[in-house]
Structures are given as C-alpha cells and as structure tokens.
From TrEMBL:
Domain Response regulatory: 7-125
A Pfam family the protein falls into: Response_reg
Classification lineage: Bacteria, Bacillati, Bacillota, Negativicutes, Selenomonadales
Molecular functions per Gene Ontology: DNA binding
Any one of the GO BP annotations: phosphorelay signal transduction system
Protein keywords: Phosphoprotein
Protein name, as recorded: Response regulator transcription factor
Entry-linked PROSITE patterns: RESPONSE_REGULATORY
Entry-linked InterPro entries: Bact_response_regulator (IPR050595), CheY-like_superfamily (IPR011006), LytTR_DNA-bd_dom (IPR007492), Sig_transdc_resp-reg_receiver (IPR001789)
Cell wall biogenesis/degradation listed as a keyword: no
CDD domains: REC
Modified-residue entries (4-aspartylphosphate), positions: D62
Taxonomy, superkingdom: Bacteria
Record organism: Selenomonas ruminis
Length: 246
C-alpha cells in the first residue's frame, strides 16, 4: 500500500507455531508489517537453501528445531556476512547465553499471540522503516504512515471526531487519508523532519517538492500547493536549506 515491501522469514518446524506468529504479525497494528511479504520454512536447511544476505528484512528462528536448530541456522546466516535482524522463538531461556554469540535482535516467547506487546517492541527496534513513520489514528485504530510517502498534510475535507477536527494526509500516490489525528498533533511531529508549513494548516514534505515558484510549490506528482505571502520567505529558506542538506 505504501510502496515499501518488507520481507519477513518465519522458520519453525511446527506448523501451528508458524501460523500463530503469522496471525500475530497480521494483527500487530503496524500496517507496514501487516502488509509484509512473509515466507515460511519448516527447517533451517530449507531456509538456508535459498538464503542470500539481502533476502529478508527480519528473520524469526525457532531455537529448538529438529535437524539444524535455530542457533546453528543463525551461525550459518552470520557466516555469510548477513546482518539481518534475527529474533529467536523460544518457550524458555535455556539457549539465551549461547544465542547471544550470533547477536540476535531479541527473543520472543511462544505462543506469539500471547506476547503481542513484546512482538511490537521487537518490530519497532528491528525495522528501520518504522522509525520514519507518522503515527495517526484512523477509525480508532493506530496507523503507521511512512513519512517518505507523504506529500502534504492539511485540513481540507477533514472530519470531526469526539469534538476534535482531524486532518487529511495526502500521499504521493494521490491517495487521501482523512484521519482522526488533529492537524496540530501531526504537524508537531512532522516539523521535526523535512516538512514546512507553507500556508495556514498546510504542511508540505520538502522531499516531495519538484520546483519552487514565486507563489507556491510544484510537487513531484504534479500537484501545486500555494505559499502564503506571510510565510514565503521562511518557507523558501527552509526549502533551500533542505536542498543543501541533501
């Protein structure tokens, strides 16, 4: 949906455990993960047969697999020079000390469905894409919107929820998300990134700008946004500084 495809490997010799982890990932509340491409392997041997260092963004490994166990599989991954985050699936801490020799990103207790808060924390730590997102509320549900996919944020067409007016997140694809999060809250987060307020209640992603004109911006998707006279000097300065940083 957002143009970012995260590939996740789940390696466990128990079909039920693989299914439980898949269900937990698909209901974790992080859309980037819920839309991920997940691949499943019943053994370490099956996984390693086609593994390349750049194959996956995240690997879940059951420690106590038959044949090549999770620790041995992780060692084989590291021998290839792959720095992919590895999360061990376990029902105990028996292998914890040995596991640290392969620098795991964490341990997740099975069944995964009962460790959802722990899983979400692991995902936030392991996937760099999630550190560059705008967290908004949509119909009472948390939504993670990658900042790089945002063209601009405004209030035109926004709706009121519980007495508060939300805002509209415009994506580079042209899609509009009328979210429950107030404009002020979204703007407070985005102003710390490469966003600038070019008009009243209109915040533009400077990375989405193709050209600065005398009265506004032309975006890379062809849209045009106005710049108020009051904010023009400051906005133009912010844009020039952005270009110099890049």
């Amino acid at each position: 949906m957002w143009g970012i495809v995260v590939k996740i490997a789940i390696v466990d010799d128990e079909a039920k455990a693989r299914e439980e982890l898949q269900q937990a990932l698909c209901s974790c509340g992080i859309e980037l993960v819920e839309q991920a491409e997940m691949q499943f392997f019943a053994s370490g041997e099956d996984f390693l047969a086609g593994f390349r260092p750049d194959s996956f963004a995240l690997v879940f490994l059951d420690i106590r697999m038959q044949g090549r166990n999770g620790i041995e599989t992780a060692r084989a991954i590291r021998k290839q020079g792959a720095q992919v985050p590895i999360v061990f699936l376990t029902s105990s801490a028996d292998y914890a000390l040995e596991g640290y020799q392969v620098f795991p990103a964490g341990y997740l207790l099975k069944p995964a469905g009962k460790a959802l808060p722990q899983l979400v924390e692991i995902l936030r730590q392991c996937l760099p894409e999630l550190s560059a997102v705008l967290v908004v509320q949509l119909n009472g549900r948390e939504l993670q919107v990658p900042r790089a996919r945002i063209a601009y944020v405004d209030v035109k067409g926004s709706r009121r929820v519980g007495g508060r007016r939300g805002c509209v997140v415009h994506l580079l694809t042209g899609r509009e998300l009328a979210v429950d999060t107030p404009y002020a809250e979204a703007a407070a987060v985005l102003r710390t990134a490469d966003f600038a307020e070019c008009y009243n209640h209109l915040l533009v992603n400077l990375a989405a700008v193709a050209e600065l004109l005398a009265d506004g911006f032309v975006l890379k998707n062809g849209e045009r946004l106005p710049i108020s006279r009051r904010l023009y000097r400051e906005t133009a300065h912010d844009y020039m500084e952005y270009l110099l940083r890049k």
